[in-house]
Hints:
Structural class: alpha+beta
Distance between the termini: 15 Å
Strand content: 35-45%
Order of helices and strands: HHEEEEEEEEEEEEEHHEEEEEEHH
Number of strands: 19
Shape: flat
Amino acid sequence: MLRYGGGKFIVIGLVVLAFGVGVLWANNPERTNGIAKELVEATEVFPENEGKLVIVSGTPELTNGHIKDEEANLKVENAVHYSRVPLQKVYALRSREVVVDEGEDKMSDVDDVTETEYYVVKDWINASQERDATISRTSTTYENPPALNLPAFHASGELRISGFKISSSDVFDYIQTKSAWFTQEELQEACGEYIARSELDLKAVTNENGRGMLSSGDEIGDVRVTFSYETFEGAEPVTLIGRQQGDVLVLEEDGPVSEAEQVQPGTVSKDEFVSAITTEDASSRRIGICALVLGAVLFLLAFNWGALIKPKLR
């Protein structure tokens, strides 16, 4: 019976059934019941909540925005992030799809025939990043400079909600920051020792965006060191659900609360949160049940496909 084409319904039916089972498993009532029992509403860091799943509401505050880059002899205040990134110009291999035959339909690319074309470009990459020693294209061989022992440096200020340390990436959409940078004069004054230790012909310059940086030139093998940071300008109320570890609130990747549920806008109580996810899970279960029914129907169609089309074939 399946030789008449019903096999495709088997495949589709399996996919739909697997989807339905997955939705029902991920949104079973035990999940929300377990969260309701385990979740603790916290207004500050209490020792008795150590290791527990807590829900915390508040407005993020920058409690320590002082960051010092000891190696480059630079420091910033009121900073959420700070980065020093040494880059080196190298040869890199790139690819693109090129149309070799436009096909019969000249107004569309549906039947175009393409092939992959490789080409070499000059690009800035992290100075310590591994790269191809040589790149050969047609009759030309491009030689790359070796990677340098010139590591990048990244640091973050200390953000807290109700006494809990949090990661700025967790509340990125709820904090306002302003991009900042150093001038050529500031780098010239502060980075003398850093330049000397690098043993490179680095000079403080101003780039095309008006920002200060260190640079040895713009040819293959040359290095530029960029500096940037973001200052804290304000924040909006937010609610986080995570695990208390000391005074740190850890948002778990594989915990009972999904990543999409761990950050809620505004102030949300435990009861409000549990009620919301209970409603969402119930709605998802209805979708899962519909998928199971649809999968079953597709299976029935598959095994009766021959009987349905045989009269037409006669």
